[in-house]
Amino acid sequence: MTTRFGLLAVSVLLLGGIPAALAAEPDLGPQVTSKRAPTPEEIADKEARRACQIEICDILSTREQEGPDVACNIRWRWDADEIADALGDNLDWPWGNAVCQSKIRLERAPLAKAMSEPRYVLNMDTQTVRCTLYQNGGKPVVIEMALAPRVTLKNGEATKGKVNWGDVSAPAAIYPLLYAATSLDNSANALGNEVVNQINKFIRKDCDAVKDELPGRRVN
Fold first, then answer.
1. Contact call for residues 207 and 60 (beta carbons, < 8 A)
2. Do the beta carbons of residue 12 and residue 37 sit within 8 Å?
3. Positive or negative CA dihedral for 108, 160, 150, 87?
4. pLDDT digit string (tens) for 204-219?
C-alpha cells in the first residue's frame, strides 16, 4: 500500500504543476524536505511486517508442509499529507492520519501446496482489517472489514483471484458506501486482477527481497 501511495504521489508531481513552477520562478528559495525520522513505534511496526514477510516467504520457498502456521500482528501508518499527495486532485482526503492493523492467520500446508502442485486453489482464512482514520479536532473514525481471499495458482503463479469481502463495520454515514462497494466487488470481482497482481508481486519481488534472510532451504 505504501508503495502504491508513493508511485501515485510521484506521478502527481511529475504530471502536475512542478514543470510550470520551475519555468516561472527562477529563485525557488531554500531547500525544504518532508522527510522525518521514524518513531520507535513505526520502526517496530516495520520490523514486525518484515518478520511476517520472511515467515511467509520461507514457506513458499521451502514448500515444507510440516511446521507452525503463520500468525502475525501487523500495522501500517500513513500521514495525512502522504495520503492527500497520493490521491492528488482525483479525490479529497477529509481525514487526518490513518492507522490500519490486522492479525494475519495462514495455514502452512495450503501455502506450501500452492507452490508445489501444478494447479491449486488457495482458500485463505478470514482476515479482519481494522483502520482508524483520525480527524483534526474530531473523533476518530473506525472501519473494520473482513475478507477471505481465494486465489488460483498454476505452477506457483497466481492466475485468478477474488477478495471475498465479509462483514463490514463503519459509522452510519460511511457504512452504506462500504457495503455497496464490497457487495459489488463480491458479485463483479472488479478487484480480481489486483489480487492476482499483488500475490504475484509478493511471490516474486517481495520474497526475492528477503531471500538471504530465509531460515529454511531455498527451492529453485
1. yes
2. no
3. positive
4. 999 999 999 999 755 4
- Burial label, 133 (beta-carbon count in 10 A; 0-12, 13-18, 19+): buried
What number of residues does the chain have? 220
User: Nine-digit cell at 179?
Assistant: 457495503
Domain ranges of the chain: 39-213
Q: What is the DSSP string of 158-209?
A: EEEEE--EEEEE--TTTHHHHHHHHHHHHHH-TTHHHHHHHHHHIIIIIHHH
Determine the pLDDT at residue 46: 92
pLDDT at position 77 is 87
Identify the segments of the chain with pLDDT beneath 50.
Answer: 1-29, 32, 219-220
pTM: 0.77
Cβ 125 vs Cβ 151: under 8 Å:
no
C-alpha cell at 32: 525544504
pLDDT of residue 6: 33
pLDDT digits (tens, 9 = 90+) for 33-44: 556 678 888 899
Contacts of 62 (CB under 8 A, 6+ apart): 112, 214, 216, 217, 218, 219
141 and 174 in contact (C-beta within 8 Å)?
Answer: yes
C-alpha span between 185 and 194 (Å, rounded): 12
Nearest to 203 by CA among 170, 139, 173, 159: 159
